[in-house]
Amino acid sequence: MVTEVQYGGRITDGLDRELFNDYGNRWINENCLTQNYCFDHTVTEFNYHIPDYLEHQRFVEYIGKMPGNDSPNIFGLHANADLTFRLKESLEMINVLLDTQPKEAGGAGGLSREDQVKEKIEKELLPKLPQDFIMLDVIERLKVLKGPKGLVDAVTGKYDTVPLNVFLRQEIEWF
Q1: Tens digit of pLDDT for each residue in 92-108?
Q2: Which residue from 77, 6, 87, 21 is spatially nearest to 44, judged by alpha carbons?
Q3: Residue 165 reports pLDDT greater than 70
């Protein structure tokens, strides 16, 4: 449910969904409930495990010790994955910088290609779109939309925190 419903709706590529589900199976499973469960026994800079503390402050301290950048090994990737990622990220940044540099203006006079596209969108496509949702109305209707039996929020008595209703609201917002 976590990988398919809560986050999976945002994933459009089949291979990305398969990878994300694999991560979900690896990181969110019943073994997480065992004492001092270790997520991965590979040698990395940080030992990812669920600490056996009772005090909140010790959990906060443990989280503070986690690295800012994780090793690709912890995700089952080769160490070169980080190098490949950084190289690709650098090239994309350079391309963005090159694309945003001022260009020499030609003396053609008339609308630029971008302005022609904008004009076409404004005149031809925008009038064809349906009216926007009134999000406040949608949210109010979702608050009373019932979910599966037993999933009413124990505190508020409403159904707006039921995962399927949250998923529906997110999809409507995205649409």
Answers
A1: 998 888 888 777 655 55
A2: 77
A3: yes
CB atoms within 10 A of CB 159: 19
User: 159 and 165 in contact (C-beta within 8 Å)?
Assistant: yes
What's the mean pLDDT in 29-42? 78
Which residue do the tokens 């398919």 mark?
4
Asked if 45 contacts 71 with a C-beta cutoff of 8 angstroms, the reply is yes
Which residue in the block uniquely carries the two structure tokens 């990181």?
A: 27
Q: Is the pLDDT of residue 109 over 80?
A: no
Asked if residue 27 belongs to a domain, the reply is yes
CA 135-138-143 angle, 5° bins = 125
Q: How many residues does the chain have?
A: 175
Q: Write out the E strands in 86-159.
A: none
How high is the pLDDT of residue 146? 72
pLDDT of residue 5: 74
Quote the CA–CA distance of 85 and 6 in Å, as a whole number.
26
Co-location of 84 and 16 in the same domain: yes
CA–CA separation, 118 and 128 (whole Å): 15
Domain extent, residue 148, equals 129-175
